[in-house]
Design a protein that fits this description.
The complex is a heterodimer.
Chain A lengths: L1 H19 L16 H11 L4 H11 L4 H4 L10 H136 L2 H17 L3
Helix pairs in contact in A: 1-5, 2-3
Chain B lengths: L1 H19 L2 H17 L1 H8 L5 H12 L5 H12 L6 H15 L3 E7 L5 H15 L3 E7 L7 E5 L2 E4 L2 H11 L1
Parallel strand pairs in B: 1-2
Antiparallel strand pairs in B: 1-3, 3-4
Helix pairs in contact in B: 1-2, 1-5, 1-6, 2-6, 4-5
Classes of the chains: A mainly alpha, B alpha+beta.
């Protein structure tokens, strides 16, 4: 609001300056008493449609100048004095009001805007940093998860390998044990069979021997056995 | 418990026989009866069957020993059979024999032979056993045909085995 008021005031000043300011050469005050002959001529020329440049030329001639001096082109760099004065006055008026009201407001607005932009930038920077931190954290967590998954997979593979090796070892051991047990059983069975056979043969042989002995033990042999026994006991003294 | 009862019966029989003055005779007769009882399943079953009345069993004893053994022997055996101790009779008689030998300062020597021994053989064997064991041996001869031949003598814990059967067993073990 204040900015609009300041701009409006500056525009009015410019309008006042350039709208109502008249060339000093063309300003005339009516009702002035005596006009010089030059001025009469000029007035008459203007009534007859002469321009301002013609009026100035008349003055130059009246002052002793030549036509060439009348036709001198105006200086493009340096304007008329009255224009300079009025321009300067208007410039300083406008500058005063701008400096007093406009420039501070504009400056304040610009500062506020700058500050806001700075704060926005800082906030954005902070958020960007925070986002980057979160992103880095997530990436780290993701990497950890991947590493953990890889570790679990590897661990599972190692366990499976170990289990497989154990199973193979146990199987081989069991097979070897079964094989040795089978061999032992066979050997034992063989030994038992041999012992049984030997026992049977012995039994048969002894049985045959008993029969033979019984048949050959007549009374004389029996008596001789008793006599031999008595002699044997008598010979073995305590 | 059985050992105490056996000992008691043996002591009773010993006392009776010694009182009668027929300890040696009664001892020999009881010993032979014991061997007969152990060698005959029928006699053993008849004397140990609880279904048979005691009087009947005693009658069997009297019929078996009457006229062949002294009255004291018959009475003592009949008494043991009548009290239902027939199954323990061999152990009672063994104890009695030991007590008789101890009373005579001797030790019982059981001699098993495949064939009966003559008295001469018994005397010489007794003398040989006395010298071999250093004790006075009261020889009791038992005929055991299962020996096939030869003799086995046991005096206390000492066994002198000269039987054919044992030699055949040794041969079998060696084979």
């Amino acid at each position: 609001m204040r900015r609009m008021r300041t701009l409006l005031f500056a525009a009015l000043a410019l309008v006042a300056l350039f709208g109502f300011a008249r060339p000093a050469a063309a300003q005339e005050t009516e009702g002035e008493g005596d006009e010089s002959p030059v001025e009469d001529v000029i007035h008459e020329a203007e009534e007859n449609g002469a321009s301002h440049a013609d009026a100035e030329c008349i003055e130059v001639l009246a002052e002793g100048g030549t036509v060439t001096d009348c036709q001198e082109a105006p200086n493009p760099l340096l304007p008329e004095l009255n224009e300079i004065i009025w321009g300067a006055v208007g410039f300083f008026v406008v500058f005063f009001f701008l400096a007093r009201f406009g420039f501070p407001a504009i400056k304040k607005t610009m500062n506020a805007r700058t500050e806001k932009i700075r704060s926005d930038l800082a906030a954005a920077e902070a958020q960007r940093g925070e986002a980057e931190g979160l992103a880095a954290e997530y990436r780290a967590q993701l990497n950890d998860a991947k590493a953990e998954a890889g570790r679990i997979i590897e661990e599972g593979r190692q366990q499976a390998d170990a289990l497989r090796r154990d199973s193979e070892t146990r199987l081989q051991a069991e097979l070897a044990e079964m094989r040795s047990r089978a061999i032992e059983d066979i050997e034992s069975s063989k030994a038992h069979a041999m012992a049984d056979l030997r026992g049977d043969v012995t039994q048969i042989a002894i049985g045959a021997a008993e029969v033979v002995v019984q048949r050959n033990l007549d009374p004389a042999t029996q008596t001789q056995l008793v006599e031999d026994y008595i002699n044997q006991v008598a010979a073995s003294r305590a | 418990m059985a050992d105490d009862r056996t000992l008691a019966y043996a002591e009773a029989l010993f006392s009776v026989a010694r009182a009668e003055g027929t300890l040696g005779t009664v001892g020999d007769e009881l010993f032979r009866f014991s061997q007969t009882l152990q060698g005959s399943d029928e006699l053993r079953d008849a004397l140990t069957d609880p279904q048979i009345p005691a009087s009947r069993r005693q009658q069997v004893v009297e019929d078996l020993l009457g006229g062949k053994a002294s009255p004291t022997t018959v009475a003592l055996v009949s008494m043991v059979v009548g009290t239902g101790r027939s199954r323990e009779l061999p152990a009672i008689i063994r104890k009695l024999v030991e007590m008789s030998a101890t009373a005579a300062h001797k030790e019982v020597g059981e001699v098993r032979s495949a064939v009966p021994l003559t008295s001469d053989q018994v005397d010489r064997l007794t003398k040989a056993l006395n010298e071999a064991t250093g004790k006075q041996v009261d020889v009791r001869v038992v005929v055991d045909p299962s020996l096939l031949g030869g003799v086995i003598a046991q005096v206390g814990d000492t066994v002198i085995d000269g039987s054919v059967r044992t030699r055949l067993e040794q041969l079998k073990n060696a084979l």
